[in-house]
Hints:
alpha/beta, 2 domains, six-stranded antiparallel beta sheet, two-stranded parallel ribbon, 41% helix
Amino acid sequence: MLRRDCCGLIGLLALxxxxxxxxxxxxxxxxxxxVKYDPEGGPQRPGICMDVLRAVERVDPGLRFTGLEQxxxxxxxxxxxxxxxxDVFFCLLxxxxxxxxxxxxxxxxYMVRHVIVQRLDDSRLVDSLLDLATMSQVKPxxxxxxxxxxxxxxIAGVNLSEVSSERxxxxxxxxxxxxxIYGQDVNLLRHIxxxxxxxxxxxxxTVFQEEAQYLTVRSDLPAPxxxxxxxxxxxxxxxxxxxxxxxxxx
Length: 250
């Protein structure tokens, strides 16, 4: 019993010593993704990914993140992460192509649901990707440029058009230039509220997929740093902080 207690004490001391070591990791904010990063949201609502990042800093005060004054489009974020110009990035969905370029910390940050938005007066029911592919033969489905979602729709045979943001997509939907937008529920709901379009558009009833956003790290980030980040996120998950932050932005 004494030996086991000593081993546990040594482990706690080692963890404490690791967290005392200051480390600065390079990252950026994602541009045009105000649910993730909102430069105009102020300290209370800086975006869910920025909130998670700050929570990691609080739970492990030795971890610091630099480069947050930079806002980068998603494709550039992916390129910089793949080339090792960034050490970490909060938050990205998984895909086989992405997993070949960098690593994922195995603690889900928050869940998103893939849904469509239609005009309120459009009564058509879209219950599958096959239905969506059929609809798209008349007018292409809109999806945000550079996302994993676009690749999935393309594989499913959906005729799509990529746009720069959910805001642009909603404008095109209300003007009748498309009949559906495919995206993440939390993002679409935020833009619908901001644009006050609740009386003109609606979310479809089908959830096409549900998946998690993760913290990503460059492929050659040292294992002790990856474990340190993992431990910080596990503590936030255990304490209910990640759940609370996800609810804050829904």
